[in-house]
Specification:
Layout lengths: L3 H6 L4 E2 L3 H18 L6 H11 L2 E2 L4 E2 L3 E3 L5 E3 L4 E2 L3 E4 L4 E3 L4 E2 L4 E3 L1 E2 L4 H5 L2 E4 L2 E3 L4 E2 L4 E2 L4 E2 L4 E2 L4 E2 L7 E4 L4 E5 L3
Parallel strand pairs: 2-5, 3-6, 4-7, 5-8, 6-9, 7-10, 8-13, 9-14, 10-15, 13-16, 14-17, 15-18, 17-19
Antiparallel strand pairs: 1-12, 11-12, 19-20
Helix pairs in contact: 2-3
């Protein structure tokens, strides 16, 4: 029988009140609270905390406080990653972010979702879908990346966009729901 964590990571319905998951969220909460209290001059402390929080971190990773996440351990970021102030990552499933990606202030990335059926939703079960962001992606401030979305390399997500579908490589998207407004030419 798979654990609730195994079901969660597989994108199956799971019970978020499972003690193992509660403990993991509390651990992430403690690390993010400590991280968010650091001074900008504490670069070594910040780096160590992010490396403890995230599953994998490429070189030259910068996350401006405050930052929030569910677990942290399902977040993978590449080289040259930058997240501006007030970013949130709900990582009940894996979140992969490539090299040289920029997140503007207030960007939210969601893997968590809930059943549409109200009775099932009231029961407390949840599920998730992974998010993947390619290399050299710029996500403008206040954009929201929804569960299950894949963003191709070199894409640009306009500020305030709500991304509900995959974004092709080299595309510029904006709006709610986000749609391709043009392709980036070499």
């Amino acid at each position: 029988m798979p654990s609730e964590k195994e079901k969660m990571l597989a994108g199956e319905r799971y019970d978020a009140s499972d003690p193992e998951l509660v403990a993991a969220r509390e651990h992430a909460n403690a690390l993010t609270r400590e991280y968010n209290r650091t001074d900008p001059s504490e670069t070594d402390t910040r780096q160590a905390l992010i490396e403890d929080l995230f599953s994998s971190v490429g070189p030259d990773c910068h996350v401006e406080p405050p930052f929030r996440c569910d677990y942290g351990e399902h977040i993978h970021v590449g080289e040259g990653f930058y997240a501006n102030f007030d970013c949130v990552v709900l990582d009940v499933c894996r979140v992969d972010i490539g090299d040289d990606c920029l997140l503007g202030p207030g960007v939210h990335i969601y893997t968590a979702t809930h059943p549409l059926d109200p009775d099932e939703r009231r029961s407390g079960v949840e599920y998730g879908k992974p998010v993947s962001i390619g290399d050299n992606v710029w996500v403008g401030g206040q954009a929201v990346i929804n569960p299950g979305v894949t963003i191709g390399d070199d894409a640009v997500i306009g500020s305030g966009a709500v991304v509900t579908d995959d974004v092709p490589a080299g595309a510029v998207v904006q709006g709610n729901p986000a749609s391709v407004v043009r392709k980036i030419e070499d």
